[in-house]
C-alpha cells in the first residue's frame, strides 16, 4: 500500500520532530533532553517545560517503562480503525520520566488485561503506509520488526 492510500491519521513530520521520526525508522525511541536541567520531555517542544531553556539534544531512550494507565477501546470512533477494535490504549511512564500515550502491540484477544506498573518495552512495527510507529509490548522478548 502506498502512503497516499493509507487512511489512518499520522502526525506531520516537522523540522522539530524529525529526529524523533528518524529514530523510529531506525528502531530507536528518541527523546529531547534539556541541556540545562537534564530532564527528558515528550512530545518535543521548543522549550523545556521545567526550566524554560531552549537548549536541548536528542537522546536514544531506553525504550522501557511501566503502564501508568490504560483502557480498552471498543467504540469505532474512526472508520480507518474499525477493523482493530477492541484495542488497548496505554499511558506508559518511560524510564526517563515522560508519559507517552500509545497502544499495546501484542495483546491477543482473551489475554489478561494490563495492570498498573506492568513493565513494557517499545516495539516498532511499520504500518502499511511505511511509517514506523512506536507501540509497547508486555512480552519478555523483543522482536524488532515483528
Ligand atoms: Zn530544563
Automatic annotation (TrEMBL):
Pfam families: OB_ChsH2_C, zf-ChsH2. Signal peptide: none annotated. InterPro entries: ChsH2_C, ChsH2_Znr, NA-bd_OB-fold, Thioester_dehydratase-like. Residues 21-54 form the ChsH2 rubredoxin-like zinc ribbon domain. It comes from the Bacteria. Residues 58-125 form the ChsH2 C-terminal OB-fold domain. This is OB-fold domain-containing protein. It comes from Actinomadura meridiana.
Amino acid at each position: 500500500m502506498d502512503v497516499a492510500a493509507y487512511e489512518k491519521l499520522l502526525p506531520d513530520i516537522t523540522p522539530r520532530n524529525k529526529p524523533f521520526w528518524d529514530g523510529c525508522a531506525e528502531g530507536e525511541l528518541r527523546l529531547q533532553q534539556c541541556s540545562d536541567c537534564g530532564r527528558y520531555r515528550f512530545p518535543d517542544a521548543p522549550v523545556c517545560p521545567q526550566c524554560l531553556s531552549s537548549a536541548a539534544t536528542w537522546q536514544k531512550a531506553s525504550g522501557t517503562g511501566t503502564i501508568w494507565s490504560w483502557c480498552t477501546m471498543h467504540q469505532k470512533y474512526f472508520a480507518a480503525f474499525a477493523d482493530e477494535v477492541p484495542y488497548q490504549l496505554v499511558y506508559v511512564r518511560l524510564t526517563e520520566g515522560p508519559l507517552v500515550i500509545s497502544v499495546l502491540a501484542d495483546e491477543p484477544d482473551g489475554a489478561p488485561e494490563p495492570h498498573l506498573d506492568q513493565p513494557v518495552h517499545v516495539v516498532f512495527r511499520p504500518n502499511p503506509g511505511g511509517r514506523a510507529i512506536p507501540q509497547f509490548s508486555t512480552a519478555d522478548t523483543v522482536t524488532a520488526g515483528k
